[in-house]
Amino acid sequence: MSEPKWQKSSFSNDRDECIELTHEAPDEVLIRESEAPGVTIKASRAKLHTFISGVKDGTLSHPI
Q: pLDDT (tens digit, 0 to 9) for every residue of the chain, 64 residues total?
């Protein structure tokens, strides 16, 4: 299996502190922190969308 092509956030510019994404399968996304590239999180596109929407609209602004 070939190494995935990670996409870096455009907000990170040339810094190493960023989140990177790649696709593992048509509906699966891998997420990693550039400072810890060996640790990844796998999520479906739908679950990632729900998470990002919750962060943006404030639903997830307070930890449980």
A: 578 899 987 777 666 678 899 998 889 999 998 888 899 999 999 999 998 899 889 887 766 6
Give the separation between CA 26 and CA 37, rounded to whole angstroms: 22
What distance in Å separates the CA atoms of residue 35 and residue 38, rounded to the nearest whole number?
A: 9
CA dist list (Å): 52 to 5, 14, 26: 22, 23, 19
- How far is 28 from 25, CA to CA, in rounded Å? 5
Integer Cα distance of 28 and 30 in angstroms: 7
Q: Give the amino acid at 46.
A: A
Q: Are 30 and 24 in contact (CB under 8 A)?
A: yes
